[in-house]
Amino acid sequence: MRFLALMLCPLAFTTGVFVFAGVLDPLAADLGVGVEAAGQLQSVFAISCAIAGPILAILTGRFGRKGLLVGTLAYLAVMNALSSIMPGYGGLLTTRLLAGAFGALTMPMASTIAVALVGPERRARALAVVYAGVSLAFISGIPLGSVVGEAFGWRASFWLASALSALACLAVLVLIPKVPAPPPAPKGAFSAVLSWPTTGYLLVTMLAFAAIFSAIGYVGPVIGQLTGFSGAGIGAVQMISGLGSFLGLTIGTRMVETRMRGPLVWLFSAVLLSQAIFSVGLIGGWVGSAGLAVAVIGMLIGSTSLFGTAPIVQSRLAEAAGPAATLAFALNGSMVYLGQGLGVVLGGVVLAGWGLSYVSVAGMAVAALGILLALRLRAGRVSEPVQAR
Question: What is the pTM of this model?
């Protein structure tokens, strides 16, 4: 039950980030902005998380982990509720920015508590369970947001996100034991965490998410163009991402446990393949059953490969960072958010300049950079923990 409560945290958080992705078109029309501008509501949230995460991890280092997580989830519930009642684009942009700033603590706090509750031999599995909450968001929370948004208006999607945050807050409050603050990180821990190869694994996270979110950040319009679906239909296709993410977490955990050599090369190659599949369908103007096949296969391969990187990166960061694990997790969370934000921004630039059909070409380019990085990490694999200097 404790890990179920921890799983609810990324479920609520991730749903809140992308709950309106399937209703971008009506949201943009209602607010009087373009779809690319509506998409930036996601990037503002994500980049705000990326900047605030490490700073908050340092400033809150002396506080108990449980109390911080409860406070963060309560804050998200309030900010999502405020987002639902904002009358204009500027107000909504502000609430998304503020929600992202403090919400950045959600994933590192949940990950730190998970690591504290198990021994080193179960670390990868514990972290995979936490990340399964992200998978649940893609398989249930975000698609449900599309369904609710179509039925009751896009503002109802934010009320759904608020309710999930409140539920997660209550679950942590009741089910999670008190977890004290970890021992102070050694002097120089920040510079040590930012040394190679730790920085390489942080960049893996950023590039993987940026490659996927150049297209998935505009999932509603993309699926709509390929299939002609809207609302509930888009939500049904979005569920494929959730299935793929569960599969990816399983594969990634297995790669860690079997000490597979160079797994990130294979995973980034799969990311590249997923974006190539989307590009073929979008640029080729595939619609109907052919477009649906592109959407389903592309999303399945993309989400599987993306989430396959999570247990690998998280486990190696936990090994390397030691007492600075919370800081390392916060930095990795920043890379998740920064990658999402950069992907949406990059997709928005392509969308504005060349049209929706080419957004996945940007993802292909980013995935190619990821392959080069993965090859560099494989060539210089260092197993010893990073020592504070």
Answer: 0.76
